[in-house]
Amino acid sequence: MYFDAASTAPLHPVARQALTAALDEGWADPARLYRSGRQARMLLDAARETVAAVLGTRADEISFTASGTQAVQLGLLGALAGNRRRGGHFVHSAVEHSSVLHVAERHESAGGEVSVAPVDRGGRADPAAFAALLRPDTALAALQSANHEVGTVQPVGEVAVLCAGAGVPLLVDAAQSAGRVDVPAGWSLLTASAHKWGGPPGVGVLAVRKGVRYASPLPADEREGGRVPGYVNVPAIVAAAASLRAVRAEAERENARLHALVERIRTRVPRLVPEVEVVGDPVRRLPHIVTFSCLYVDGEVLLTELDRAGFAVSSGSSCASSTLTPSHVLAAMGVLTEGNVRVSLPYGTAEADVERFLAVLPDLVAGVRAPLGLDLPAPTPTAIGAAPRAEGRAGAESEERQATDGGGSAGARSVGAGSERPEASGRVTVIDALGKRCPLPVIELAKRIGEVPPGGTVVVLADDEAARLDIPAWCGMRGQEYAGEAPAAEYGGDRGSAYLVVRRTT
């Protein structure tokens, strides 16, 4: 079962048909005047008109790029260059796609300034806080239409009004929402990506409103309004436009159906799996995305077990990422990152597929957790109609990876009362989790919290960045008090940080 449409959607049947036809009719150079060139040009113009109509813009404001990422990067760099006389200040939200963050890094390295608007625990930017960052020298602002990891819909319309009032152009990354929902008006630049809505990969969209100052960051080229150099892939663009029109026509009915399936996952997973946090705004969200995090679970192990059971999902956990750092989106939200699972349903997902996912998930999570020896309530198969045992088995491999990740379980030592830290009341337990990747520090914390009396303090030494997010999140879920962070050296550590937890519940 493919549940990763937010990464890339399956090719829509209409896209497949249009691509096949366009390969025969639109293969020639659309810039040429002979018959086959004119035919290709007609197809390209028609595709541009279709995309413009769906996105609510003019056809001559649309340029096609090689990807959504390229569209974002060209849009940002071109708008920053076009508004350089105004200043070098750039504002974006903390949960933007990495393509925005990378441009921001480059802009800073070139001498520009960047301000980052925070988000709430649901992943939503506050319009007033966003607008407060705008300055007379702000050249550009960027805000995604909806978040790619948790599905939270951003207040684009409100922010657009505030940006317009300050005379600041706003780029909206609509990669996750284009074709599914309307993008609010008021944007200056808009980007999208065809493979997110069921079109072929290799087609991005960059829309630049008339009157918006834009200077291409690349050498001049006569194609695509001078914004995107190089030969365009007419057959792929035709297929992208056809599928965009098709999914938009189906959107109202399909969104309602997917919204109900996602709501079923949102409400039932916490009942079926203990110690789970569903993240993202529960109301202002895309209809097809739901994200949750499971305490004490290695995200990579859980994704592997789900894959064995026949489910393709993604994760923002650090252990499941190529960078070994937790998702910047989850970090900005301040939510649990370990054991993170994003489910994003493609068009046509059957109710039976979602039911099967809910049936196998509890046993998979329980199997991954089993070797840890934690006192957790068992899943209740009767709550989901006597769910069968999962096809995937979180057995020896899961046990080995959870127990030995980073060199074995974390050691601990205790020091008596009278610690140098005033937060301690009674005995202090210091857990040395240095060199251990999450979720191991949190697992050791859960095992050792009972060793101190109520009011006592547990100090976790850790150098994994995810611990800074997951330990406070664990405290919130388990009713314990997070007392802050201190240098690890104050508790005998030679690196990393010390995270202080005061025991409040039994």
Q: What order do the SSEs take from the amino end to the carboxyl end, as H and E? A: HHEHEHEHEHEEHEHEEHHEHHEEHEHEE
Rg measurement, Å: 25 Å
Could you describe the largest sheet, including whether it forms a barrel?
7 strands, mixed
Strand line-up in the sheet with most strands: 1-7-6-5-4-2-3
- Number of contiguous helices: 14
Multimeric state = single chain
The structural class is alpha/beta
If you average the pLDDT, what whole number results? Answer: 88
List low-pLDDT spans: 381-426
Helix coverage percent of residues?
25-40%
How many strands appear in the DSSP assignment?
15
Binned strand content: 15-25%
How far apart are the termini?
Answer: 41 Å
The shape, in one word, is globular
Q: Can you put this structure into words, describing what you see?
A:
With 506 residues, the chain is an alpha/beta fold. The protein is built from 14 helices and 15 strands. The protein has a 7-stranded mixed beta sheet with strand order 1-7-6-5-4-2-3, with helices on both faces. The protein is globular, with a radius of gyration of 25 Å. The model is unreliable at 381-426 (pLDDT under 50).
